[in-house]
């Protein structure tokens, strides 16, 4: 077991316990109809958090293979949600099947076998070329470019990008051997706390939306308040990372900004497809992709910054 | 148990969440009729019903496909509780369906008769009209299945994991003097109406 496991998860569980108690008290206190809906949604989210943290905790305890499987399953659900609300044609069946049955297992297998070189190019090069070939053999030219692009986008985002989170386990950071799980913990904690804190700051002080047509609930007040708090928490976690406190703060800030951009971009994608949520899988959260949107942008950024500045081949 | 495994596997791959938009899942005699685009349609629609209703609801399946191998026949008859229909044309193909309705049971029908690659259904065959006329007590419930043409089109070996939704609409009634063609057009339109606002 990685050192620091017990205090870290102890801290997360305490946080959730406090949140649950606050949520329970709020549900007894509120009277107005809108406040009641907000609190009910908050409590649904907290309940889902318990489940997600529990899963993550089990994966940590069991080890690398379990963690990789958990993320592979997450990619599966996110890709399913993405393709489900994206218009493709029956002729695209083969390229969609290849995305699911070939590229998800292959991408995560490459992580399991530490094959970093091929991991980095499998989807941007090989899948990029193969998917349109599978579709073109069906001979349907109507909307060929948008159809192909949608599937490629879906695969890049939900499989390639998300797989960079468990890929942190294979980075070789000198003097940090055997502790890579904590890098993953750092990423997920900063990204998710940033989402939660932006939501909280936005609800309390939000006035000026960043992009009103894309996502009216994302405000400058939420971004600055939540983002800075999450950065501060990231800096405070420097002792579990190979970074100095200042480096830790800088990387946390990069995670926060990338995560915010991911949320914004995926909101726009969702709107262009005419949907409000990606799915109905998680009570109070919408679909799996509604929770992973910020991770999908933050994971590759954090992976490559850490790889470039701290890791050796 | 086999039913649970089959339902679990189908849910994992293609979802099949039920949306009761025009009626509620009640224990009444009904004829559910839906658009048909894949072999999964039968399982998906049947699995979308609450367990209590499944016991007395029979999907209508083609004998030439579901009766072709012992495994298919087992799944159709023993697991899905299906009534097999002979499309080859000898005798009255609707006879087994009438039998089920006479027992007070419900049916799941695909009135197009064959699988279709498009999002909207093709023209309906007349079987549903004859059944509606002979069994006016059974409610006619239109159902629209999203996405299955993309998830498991004709000729595909494996279904691709694309979630589909089972939309149940409001009951239709055959009016006393309605002619066959009008009724079939109206029934098809009721299924198409449910496709509105669905992503496909």
What does this entry look like structurally?
The complex is a heterodimer of chains A (313) and B (200). Chain A has 313 residues and is an all-alpha fold. Chain A is built from ten helices and no strands. Chain A is globular, with a radius of gyration of 20 Å. The relative contact order of chain A is 0.11. With 200 residues, chain B is α/β, with parallel strands linked by helices. Chain B has a single domain (2-195), classed as Glycerol-3-phosphate (1)-acyltransferase (3-Layer(aba) Sandwich), CATH 3.40.1130. Chain B has nine helices and seven strands. Chain B has a seven-stranded mixed sheet, with helices on both faces. In chain B, helix 1 (2-14) packs across helix 2. Chain B starts with a helix and ends in a 5-residue tail after the last helix. Chains A and B meet through helix 3 and helix 4 of A and helix 8 of B.
Query: Which structural category fits the helices and strands of chain A?
Result: mainly alpha
How many beta-strand runs of chain B?
A: 7
- Determine the most extensive contact between two protein chains: A-B, 25 and 19 residues
Q: What share of residues are in beta strands of chain A?
A: under 5%
Shape of chain A: globular
In percent, how helical is the residue content of chain B?
A: 25-40%
What is the CATH superfamily classification of chain B?
A: Glycerol-3-phosphate (1)-acyltransferase
Low-confidence parts of chain A lasting 5 or more residues at pLDDT below 50? none
Main sheet record of chain B: 7 strands, mixed
